[in-house]
Amino acid sequence: MWYQRTITLSEKPRGFHLITDEIIDKLSGLPPVETGLLHLLLLHTSASLTLNENCDPTVRADMERHFLKTVPDNAAYEHDYEGADDMPSHIKSSVLAFRCCCLYARGVYS
C-alpha cells in the first residue's frame, strides 16, 4: 500500500536546520502504518538534505563552516545572475543530497 503527500516546509535561511518535527507534523493524518519507508524528495535545485546526529548542535555549526570554506559565495562562478549564494547552493545539493529514505516501524522514524 502506498500513500503520497506533497508537503511544503517553512522557508529557512542558509544553514543546517532540524526539520524532523516539521516533517512529522506535515504527515499527520495519514492512515496508520505498522512498518514502512518515508521517501523525501526535494523539488528545489538549490536545497539539500543530510542526516546527522542531533546530540550536539556544534555538528551543524561545523558543517556550515566547512561548506562556507569549501564552497564560498562570491567565487568566480559563471552562473552568478541569481545571486552570490545560488551556485554554491547548487554545488551543495549535488555534494549532499536532494532525497533520503527513512525507516518507519511502530510509530518511530529512524
Automatic annotation (TrEMBL):
Q: What is this protein called?
A: Thiamin phosphate synthase
Its family? Belongs to the UPF0047 family.
Name the NCBIfam families on file: TIGR00149_YjbQ (TIGR00149)
Superkingdom is Bacteria
Q: Which Pfam families does the record associate with it?
A: YjbQ
